[in-house]
Write a structure and sequence with these properties.
This protein folds into two domains: 84 residues, Phosphorylase Kinase, domain 1, CATH 3.30.200.20; 191 residues, Aminoglycoside 3'-phosphotransferase, Chain: A, domain 2 (Alpha-Beta Complex), CATH 3.90.1200. The protein is an alpha+beta fold. Strand 2 and strand 3 form a beta hairpin. Strands 1-2-3-5-4 form a five-stranded antiparallel β-sheet. Helices cover 44% and strands 17% of the residues.
């Protein structure tokens, strides 16, 4: 066990660290459960280097918690090298879990703000996510989504060597069509999880849905819903309950691919050309 980490955790908990049990982790951070002399258990994320990823994740969790409509782990401590959270013990989902989850997400999406974006930039996976605020009555959601989500990913793809002439051409066409493609879906900015795939929710010990690993901003709620459908893992009951609580705007199904595109481009930049074909297929659908 790293002595400096042990000392930091002891200071955070106010009790001597006894054990640090690894629970794995992804390509971004290592994850452990810390056990202390006074019986406390805390979930700990650590990563090498000096960056603000854990601080921004903590702020995303606090924003979600402030809604009061869906559970997230409580933030105990955040600094540039470490994030300390409440441990969420888990259970098997009850039969109505997806319906409860769908209703709670719909209520989260009714939480609004005066601007698209967020007060700070954060991360989608390991990729910076730009959240420069844009007011709905100025350039609006299509401009925000194209500039700070899609075009930003294209520029990364150019840097990473993934942006072919075909991809750039399709983006040029999409820029001329984005306003029309998103027309009719205008809504106030909604509080979004930002990276809502099936690996980023848990079933808490009491059966409640619990969101983890957010990339929060205020945007169009269809962006969250599009991500839920990219890799699956959300049952029919989830969508039925969501739509009963917060009916979608007309044409939502046709716009779904536009919102998947952001995450496909991010996966192209993070994991390489195996995602290129899916990106081009979505662009051809809207730009062909």
């Amino acid at each position: 066990m790293d002595d400096i980490l042990a000392s930091r955790l002891t200071a955070v908990a106010g009790s001597a660290l006894q054990r640090l049990n690894s629970v794995g982790g992804g390509c971004i951070a290592d994850a452990s459960v810390a056990e202390f002399a006074d019986g406390q258990r805390l979930f700990v994320k650590t990563a090498a280097g000096d960056h603000d990823m854990f601080v921004t994740e903590a702020n995303s969790l606090r924003e979600l918690a402030g809604s009061g409509v869906i559970r997230v782990p409580e933030v105990v401590h955040a600094e540039r090298s470490m994030l300390v959270l409440e441990v969420i013990d888990t259970s098997a989902p009850a039969g109505d879990f997806m319906a409860v989850f769908g209703r709670q997400l719909a209520r989260l999406h009714r939480c609004s703000s005066g601007s698209y974006g967020f007060f700070e930039d954060n991360y989608i996976g390991a990729t910076p996510q730009i959240n420069t605020p844009v007011r709905p009555l100025s350039d609006g959601w299509p401009a925000f989504y194209f500039e700070y989500r899609l075009l930003y990913q294209l520029r990364l793809a150019e840097t990473n060597g993934h942006a072919t002439g075909e991809l750039i051409h399709l983006f040029n066409v999409l820029e001329s069509r984005i306003d029309g493609l998103l027309a009719g879906s205008e809504e106030p900015p909604a509080l979004l999880h930002g990276d809502l795939w099936s690996g980023n929710y848990m079933v808490a010990a009491d059966g409640a849905p619990c969101l983890i690993d957010p990339a929060v901003y205020y945007g169009h709620r269809e962006a969250d819903l599009g991500m839920t459908k990219l890799f699956g893992g959300f049952g029919r009951g989830f969508y039925e309950a969501y739509e009963d609580e917060f009916p979608p705007a007309a044409g939502a199904a046709e716009r779904e691919g536009l919102y998947k595109l952001y995450h496909l481009l991010n996966h192209l930049n993070l994991f390489g050309p195996s995602y290129y074909g899916q990106c081009v297929a979505v662009l051809r659908h809207y730009c062909g």
